Structures are given as C-alpha cells and as structure tokens.
Amino acid sequence: MSENIAIITNPLPYMTKSYIKEKLSTMGYGEDMVKIRVITKNQIPIEIELEFPFPELAQKFIKTTNNKSIDEFTKYNPLIVQYGPSTKNNILNNQKEVYYYENYTQWPDVLYERKPKEDGLILISTLQIENQKKIMAWLLKKIGKKMFKGQNVMNISLPVYIFDKRTMLQVFAYELKESPFILSKAYYAENQIEKLKYVSTYFLSQFILSPILLKPFNPIIGETYQAKIGNLNIYLEQTVHKPPTANFYCFDDDGLYKIYGYLSVTANAGLNCFSSKKLGKVIIEFKDGNKYRIYYPTIMAGGVTMGKKTFNIKNSALIVDLNNELCTYVKFNPDHVGLIKGFFNKNKTKEYYPDKFIGKIVNLSDVKIDKEGSNHELNKNARCYSELEGEWSKNIFFGNQCYWRRNLDNYCDIYEMDYKLPSDSSYREDVIFLGQNDENRAQIKKEEYEEIQRRDNKLRMEFHKRNLNAIN
Fold it and tell me: What domains can you pick out in the chain, each with its CATH number?
C-alpha cells in the first residue's frame, strides 16, 4: 500500500482531470502538490488516483474528504476515498476512433481572429478566403452554361472547395463533444434553477465547436450517422430534403438523460451576407422526469463577396424548463451602449467582443416565443432568478460564478460504433475524396448524390400529390 496515494473510487461522470485540479486548488492543494490520474471507461471517470509528495498530505486529504463532499454535487453521493494505488487499468474503448481530415478543435484558434467591436470572429485563413473569392466566378460561369443549354439554373452544383469535409449529420454529432460531462452535472444539480443553468451551459458551449464558413454536405434522405462520444450514444437520420432535416436520438450508458427530436436547417443569402437558422424540436429529458426544450439563434456569416469575412451568432435563444415553466433567455451580440446597460441596469464601459452574450432566467410567461425564427421577446419587467453573461468562445457566467470555460481537455473523442448501417455518412464517396484533396472526383460524386436527392424529392412530391388527389 502506498501511503502517499489516495483513490476516489466512486467519481461522478463529470469529474474530469481539469475539474478535479480546480477543486483541489480551492482546497489548498496546488498543481505542484498532487499528481492526478483519471482511470476511464468510455472516457468517463471510474476511478481517480491522487499522488501526494508526502504521506501526511494524503492522510489529510482522506480524512477531510472521505464520505464527504468536495463540491455541491456530491452532497447526496459522498466520496469514497481510500489509500492506493489503483488496482484498475485504463479501460480502452473497443470502438475505432473516428478520423477527421481536419483538426476542428483548433479551428477557432488558427482560422479566426477575435477582436473587440468587430461584427464577428474574423476569418484569417488565406486558403478559405481565396476559395470564397472564386465562388462568384464559378457561379457566373455555371449560370452562363445552363442558360446557353436552356437548363434550370436553380440546379447548379456548388464547388466542393467551399465545403466542409463532413456531412450535416456529422457536424450535429461533433457539437456534442462536451455534452457527457455537462449534462451529468445538470442531472446531479440539487434544484431546478441549477439544473436549468447547466442545461443552458450545455447548449451555449456548443457554438465554439462550429465556427465554420464552410458548407457541410447535405445528406440524402435516409442517410444515417452513428457515433459514441464518451458514454453518449448518438443516432441520426436525414428525413427531409428541403429544408434539410435530421431526426436524432441520443442517450448515455447510465440512463441519466437522453436528447431527441429533429432539426431543420434553413438558409438565406444576401448580397454580402449569409444567415442560417436551426428550427425544429430539441428535447433534453432526464431520468428524474425533468424536460427542457431548445430554441436556436441565427448563425451569421458576413463578407461573403467583399470585405472582412466574419462568423457570429445573432438574435436570441431560449432554453425552456418544460416542467417548471422557467426559461433562460439569451441575447447574442447585444448593443453595448443600449441593451447591456438597460438589461442589467449597469453601466458597462469596457471593450466588448463580438461573441458577447447576456441573458436572464425568468418565468416562461415573460417570454414571447418566435416559433419561426430567433427574435424572441422578453418582458422588460420580468422577474429575474439569475443573470447570465459571457463570451461563447471563452466562458459562461451565471451571476459571479463561472459555469464553463473553454477547455480542450474536456472534449470527448468520437468513436465509431461496433456496427454501422450501410447508409452511414462516413461512407459517402464525395466526403472521402474531398478528404483526400481529390476535388475533381469529389465534385463528380457530389453531383451524383445531388441528382439522387432531386429525384427522390420529386418522387415524394408526386406521391403526396396523388394521395391528396385521392383523398379529395
């Protein structure tokens, strides 16, 4: 028995290495005083080994924490701490890790510049900027050919060099990389306000995972995607062609929560900007019966044809507690002089960044929901249970307490499931060829898939029309 090693034998799912490090620091144990080793199964902690430089420190930690709590979540699930070392080894996943052609977690840091008082994160990638400049020449050339041949100009296939190397289903899954830790915190939170704070954190923490100006491939109807992130099992299927719509069902191995519903993506293009909205019905349901619904904001890309190319979140979002008629109202990129000052009744004069957001937890009756968009209205006299602010690329605060900071160590890897359907997005040849930088073959395959999409959509419309005529 090593007397300078303490073992936490029943950690909760959210107790990552960075989380334990932070808690130990608040207890007076600095980084130089303890080495942390987390033993995981499906990337979720099942045992935590703490090695102290002296036996006296290990004894002190065991005495002060055994069958007690080191934070607010373990009040009803005390830590079991004993002398080590651990008898368990890291339990590796049997699944194969999903391979991506790009390191997406680094994109916010290497492709974008974040500066105060700008319209959004500024794209600085020379390659992407040049590719976007070429798009207008491409479109004019294609339109001319279509018109000369008397063909429909609406069926122009966009060039693959402006596409992401993932499908829309894969992007949806990728946005859940931190969900197993945050949603388990929500489950263990002791009251409804705290639960809503963590469900809101789960939602807001996803935006930094998708700051892209590239277009994901639109899956064919019936195309699927399966993956495992931490202990979260993810199943998606494309069910509608226009607007692109996916149904999904996700659940964790411990049965603490599930995420289900459908999402439709709509897009609008202006002379120099592009906006996208997620509509549909997204439900988070916990084992204890608590349910929440998400209403998404607007994604905005500026400088499409000229000027700075930017990415930002606009308008507002809602996270609704369906059981208790509560709601987190979030306003993105608010007016610094007007809205922030009036919203919190505070005079904020410091520089603000384009990823700024503010919000409040209020009664649902004090919010007018925009069901077709993201212009939700908040009653200015609404009772406030908690104020919210932050920068979606950096942090999230409720009141003075930080509920999330961007930390790459807390992102779970994505693994393939033991069995995948033949319709899985990862088998798409256009995606594979583009990942290999073979743009010519990727373009050919993409146009073949698009023709299949148009044919399937036409057949479905004819089928519905015949049924409608038969009914009438």
Answer: 2-84 (3.30.70.330), 160-415 (2.40.160.120)
